Amino acid sequence: xxxxxxxxxxxxxxxxxxxxxxxxxxxxxxxxxxxxxxxxxxxxxxxxxxxxxxxxxxxxxxxxxxxxxxxxxxxxxxxxxxxxxxxxxxxxxxxxxxxxxxxxxxxxxxxxxxxxxxxxxxxxxxxxxxxxxxxxxxxxxxxxxxxxxxxxxxxxxxxxxxxxxxxxxxxxxxxxxxxxxxxxxxxxxxxxxxxxxxxxxxxxxxxxxxxxxxxxxxxxxxxxxxxxxxxxxxxxxxxxxxxxxxxxxxxxxxxxxxxxxxxxxxxxxxxxxxxxxxxxxxxxxxxxxxxxxxxxxxxxxxxxxxxxxxxxxxxxxxxxxxxxxxxxxxxxxxxxxxxxxxxxxxxxxxxxxxxxxxxxxxxxxxxxxxxxxxxxxxxxxxxxxxxxxxxxxxxxxxxxxxxxxxxxxxxxxxxxxxxxxxxxxxxxxxxxxxxxxxxxxxxxxxxxxxxxxxxxxxxxxxxxxxxxxxxxxxxxxxxxxxxxxxxxxxxxxxxxxxxxxxxxxxxxxxxxxxxxxxxxxxxxxxxxxxxxxxxxxxxxxxxxxxxxxxxxxxxxxxxxxxxxxxxxxxxxxxxxxxxxxxxxxxxxxxxxxxxxxxxxxxxxxxxxxxxxxxxxxxxxxxxxxxxxxxxxxxxx
Length: 636
What we know:
Layout: E1 11-16, E2 20-25, E3 38-43, H1 45-56, E4 60-67, H2 70-82, E5 89-92, E6 98-102, E7 112-115, H3 131-135, E8 137-143, H4 150-165, E9 169-173, H5 197-207, E10 212-216, H6 217-224, H7 229-239, E11 243-247, E12 253-256, E13 263-265, H8 278-291, H9 296-311, H10 323-332, H11 343-354, E14 361-365, H12 370-378, H13 385-403, E15 410-414, H14 420-429, E16 432-436, H15 454-458, E17 465-471, H16 478-497, E18 502-507, H17 519-529, E19 536-539, H18 546-557, E20 563-566, H19 573-583, E21 589-594, H20 596-607, H21 613-634
Parallel strand pairs: 1-4, 1-8, 2-6, 4-5, 8-9, 9-10, 10-11, 14-15, 14-21, 15-16, 16-17, 17-18, 18-19, 19-20, 20-21
Antiparallel strand pairs: 2-3, 6-7, 11-12, 12-13
């Protein structure tokens, strides 16, 4: 396989092929007919490979099309968020994004139905790319599905010709799905082999141009035109000098270099939940290995490991590992039979793939319910006025966003008791959104709408960060402490299972126990020892001597933690400035999530009728912006 392009090009791999949406059944082990709900993931073999390469740290690009609708935008956004270049992922004005419904009906039963009639990715044409784009990449990875129509086959062959002319290595993933060639009934999407001379003839002209050919044993048979795998591989060899990699499932793979002896690379024995997408994971790991200079056995080990991790989990794209996770699995593979249950791998996967990038945040927290109810009651106002007040706070956030270039650093924490409309509004506008789940003031902790939070969390937008406040001190009475810990542990497990970020807010003061320089580090260590690893901590401003202890505990247990946000507890701006001065030198502090210190005085004046709507918006915006400026001015 040619490495002539080296690492100087802008892209590592251009993935030409399917870009679609996978809808995976969430009920396992029953008939596909009885599935009630589906999880939505980006899908399509080429998109999965691009997604996997990006997670490993490579620079992939997607060459395909999606529809001009919500599903197409979902695929584009998911790929871009993962780090895939989408400059050549065109929007087709007439075709819909392809869909695949997939099920896990049993240990060896994975039905799937393709909805790809005139789908967008099959609208790819030779006009969708040029020589400069192909030449900008070290590799071009194509799939067999796009040879199935004359127009897409022409686009493939043009891309291959440009790759050959510019020293870009050509990778051919045979990716044979008989149903996509019209050889089976629509309900027989899981069928992996139907002999077809027409398919073999369509593949044949491509083989001589390839540097790497990858396929299962069934795919080798269709490419070689023989139902005996070895004879088919020999036929491919007669046509091509490519390295041929035969995927053998749990047994691993066999590499057939041109003119060399075959190399068997064993797989990793894990318990299989779902084989769908394993081949895409394998190819992403294999290509990543070659891109980073690994020899064939090591690159194949990467591929086998990526496949093993994916088959143990639900879905393909969301299950693909990061490099950190892959390295950890390879170091411990002999002892890991259930990657989906290995807590270290589960945590690494969550921390390195589903958490959004760590950055400073300036969060206006107005999830307050009890305090605002008391304030409204003191003025004889109905609690419905709280909804209007929270709308005005959202107006103030938008005013600040319009005036200053803080981008995606602005955020809000809101409740759904009085802030349901605000939650929707802020979510659609793209702000960082935290959403309160605790019953205000509860001790021991109680959650809304119920303590077993898994099902309610399923109804939340995936971007919402779960915010949970717990009044907790490590010296609390044992019975109280255990009750609080049990609730937090259960919530953390639900958040992890649903790939949701958790922000755990801890208030230790004011509950009858002294708070010293070691208190908060003890709190964090206790929760970490219980397996609770939130994406964010929200803490009372610690003392200067407490910060190094907090930092050290977080780095010991979860170096991928997004960090600490400072809460305000209705403190005056002058006190917050001091807290900011003490926190700013520590990178583990990533900003603030402050509420009443910003809106408390305007709230009282508005409910007393001393401020109108415009006045309260201006007052809150001014206080919020001033606090942001204080933090930014102190940050190194």
